[in-house]
Structure prediction request, 408 residues.
Amino acid sequence: TVNADKSTLALAPLVAVDHRVRSLSVDGIGPTLKVGDTSQYALHHRLYVDVPDATGEAAELQRLLLQQLESALPSDAINPIRLLATGDIIFGRCTWTRTVQYGEPYIAAFLDVADFLKSADVTMGNMDNTLSDNITPMGCGTGTVNFVAPTSFLDGVEYAGIDIMTQGSNHLRDFGPQYVVETIDALDRYTITHAGAGRNLAEAQAAAIYEVAGVRFGIVSGVNIDVADNSTYWATPDSAGSAPIDTASVAASIAAVRDQVDYVIFAPQWGIEYIPGPSEKQAALAEAALTAGADLIVGNHPHVPQWAVHNDQRGFVAWALGNFVYDQDWCYWTERSAILEAIFGDGRLLSVRYHPVKIEDYHRPHLTQGSDRENILRLIELGSTGQLANELICATSPLRTVLQPFVE
Prediction:
């Protein structure tokens, strides 16, 4: 009832709450939001036992009694883990030019968001380019769609506190498989966990495992966008590239890691560019991932924010978050995206929130307010509730969808 009607307010036990319900904090404390000191939460049940001093057999009986009470009445503390996930990071073209203009270390793109990203227990990004110290980058004005930057651009990723980088990408292999290996080696040197690419097919399709505070995440990534042929992006049994994904391989990769971790995240590159909702291929891949045990799906590639599946008990699906570090300034929506916040605890996904983002100067995202924030959240809400057409939103004037029901 609460999930179906936004106007309904309910008092529910913690065990009944998951990502399908918007939890509220009480006195600034929210156990499912990781806000405030949850030990002081006003709606906790508390049991106090006054134990007098005792010696000998009485002391031993007291110890056994307290042990039995603790076992029978376990703490309802959930020790939540807060994850942040970004949209596409593409170090190339004008993003490369602007970053280099600010000088080394190459952290300029993340100056306005690093503190926020580092506030999470774990932060995940998606990189859609090659890293190489053996290729000359092509900057502003070249019109290139092959993206490369020096490996030292990972200084910015490290500065921003990004722990995991997914590499399911239609651009990672732009310059050949040998540079995929160079990119992977660079991530390893920076000790950034990565998923979705490998030196060969088996390595590319294997899930990465990331552990924080004793909680283990399995991350499965890969690429299958809505074009006629994805094979040029893919790793093969004996050459490097991104992981090919279809319904069978996604299910197999998730099944292989499911019993080794607490939570599974599926982070694909998929879909159609500049469309605010999923394609049939996206829907099929998501269904395979959820059925296999994914708790959270965070997609990218369309370069605009896409809506979400918010009411599936199995998990939450953010079809795409949009651009995060990129130079596309020709459309209102290619400069606006969201960071997804996901709170995990007690064996499930407890809550999700979107934090709207705007990109400035071809490379520099920041958390945004006002009409931009309202438009981004409204697009996600309208699409997620079936009130927005799944059509090109960057097809004509950049202001096309800033008009009603959006705000200029």
